Amino acid sequence: MERHILVVFPHPDDEAFGVSGTLILHAENGTPITYACLTLGEMGRNMGKPPFANRETLPLIRKKELEEACKIIGINDLRLLGFRDKTIEFEDEEMLADRISAIIAETNPSLIITFYPGYSVHPDHNACGAAVIRAVERLPLEKRPTVHCVAFSKNCEQEIGHPDIIRDVSSVIDKKIAAIKAHRSQTEGLMQGAAKRGGDALTWLKTEAFWTYKWKGSN
Amino acid sequence: MQPINVEEVQDALNRFANQDVYLHLETTNGAYASHHNEGFFSAGAYIRNGRIRFSRGKIVGEGPYRVGLKLDLGWVYAEGLTDWILNEKGQLLLAGVDYEGKLAVALQLSREPF
């Protein structure tokens, strides 16, 4: 059992698709989970289907959706870091790492979950993962928590190999889908499409894959 | 938001003319466009709270619509606009929603910073 899990992602709903099954399993085991979410996804292009949000109402709507998703997953400590969607890569890297370092020092996690820098498609994902790695690398090797990264760029398996952790989360798939649906403004269209296709349209959600980050200088 | 009514949007634009106003302008094809379609050239631009002053603002087209704002020394324009709202803060929000229902372009004006 993990002592404490720290999840660091840039957008509300990043936690839902790739890792919420894993988090639900940990939460059901009694592991405390802190989620540091860098932005409110202010620049999302989805506004609901049919649309019920606009560019100016979206942040508050997504904040409420995130709070609901956290309740479903069992995340008891949500931190909103207040950055602006799509701007993470332009921020000062040391300052970003400082913000993450402070949360690591405070929560003392045994496991951190974030995006794999360079292999996570969205510039915010890559910059977020890079900030987490930078923050953890400030700690001496033996004091670093384990970092599990999510990656999904087309070239990721070619360059970083297969994920070393593949977790079957089918036992909590209903809760996971509820967490995804909580992000209604972003996922309504997607879920409608999946319902229409039927069959195994949502099968991919039953498996979650992670790459354990390998530190330079470690074996 | 609702589908653009040209007369109402033109009225709203006129009310922002000849004063300092704050501009939000964005175009985007989404951060995943090149991931889903490797042949797709991803491009976009974004400005939030640019302070401008325009002497003339005009909406044209048959829908989707185009809006141009004539500045003292230049222009602002957006195309592909489909929906609008004058919200409770008196901000004029114009957006272009694509065939999948996703926001593709936004042009917004406010007397106070967004």
Produce the secondary structure layout.
The complex is a heterodimer of chains A (219) and B (114).
Chain A: E1 5-9, H1 14-28, E2 33-39, H2 58-73, E3 77-83, H3 93-107, E4 111-115, H4 123-136, E5 146-150, H5 156-160, E6 165-168, H6 173-182, H7 184-197, E7 207-212
Parallel strand pairs in A: 1-2, 1-4, 2-3, 4-5
Antiparallel strand pairs in A: 5-7, 6-7
Helix pairs in contact in A: 1-6, 2-6, 3-4
Chain B: E1 2-3, H1 6-14, E2 21-27, H2 33-36, E3 45-52, E4 54-60, E5 65-71, E6 75-81, E7 83-86, E8 92-97, E9 103-110
Antiparallel strand pairs in B: 1-7, 2-3, 2-9, 4-5, 5-6, 7-8, 8-9
In short:
Chain A has helices at residues 14-28, 58-73, 93-107, 123-136, 156-160, 173-182, 184-197; strands at residues 5-9, 33-39, 77-83, 111-115, 146-150, 165-168, 207-212. Chain A is of the alpha/beta class.
Give an overview in words.
The complex is a heterodimer of chains A (219) and B (114). Chain A is of the alpha/beta class. Chain A has one domain (5-212): 3-Layer(aba) Sandwich (Rossmann fold). Chain A is 41% helix and 18% strand. Chain A contains seven helices and seven strands. A seven-stranded mixed beta sheet of chain A has the order 3-2-1-4-5-7-6, sandwiched between helices. In chain A, strand 2, helix 2 (58-73) and strand 3 (77-83) form a beta-alpha-beta unit. Chain A is globular. With 114 residues, chain B is mostly beta strands. Chain B has one domain (2-110): Hypothetical protein YojF (Protein Yojf, Chain: A), CATH 2.70.180.10. In chain B, 11% of the residues lie in helices and 49% in strands. Chain B contains two helices and nine strands, in the order βαβαβββββββ. Chain B has helices at 6-14, 33-36; strands spanning 2-3, 21-27, 45-52, 54-60, 65-71, 75-81, 83-86, 92-97, 103-110. In chain B, a hairpin with a 5-residue loop joins strand 8 (92-97) and strand 9 (103-110). Chain B is globular and about 45 Å long. The mean pLDDT of chain B is 94. Classes of the chains: A alpha/beta (219), B mainly beta (114). At the A-B interface, loops of A face strand 8 and strand 9 of B. Chain B: It holds the Pfam family DUF1806. Chain B: InterPro entries: DUF1806 (IPR014934), YojF_sf (IPR036492). Chain A: Pfam families: PIG-L (PF02585).
